[in-house]
């Protein structure tokens, strides 16, 4: 059983995502009926993910967990004020986001080269002499 202070989102989010570890969270939206949405960075045994959660009468987490977050997706909420468990965790999350961004750029570069090769009639994307 979990005990938490009703107005303390950190302990409620920690209970919601147990046994995973909360690295950071940010308030994203308040609904008129009292529910509050949060973006939450969670570290589990298989990596870091960005989840969305709603705290209110019935605390719940969304089904979508993204591990392909980038610095821009984290920066989007910066003006709302991320709360990080530690400065070290913040740096680790941003480092993972930078790696994800670099992976995205490599995929985009590969896709554009592959499409160009397909337009030239080279079905396998290999260079022609």
Automatic annotation (TrEMBL):
This is Uncharacterized protein. It comes from Paenibacillus stellifer.
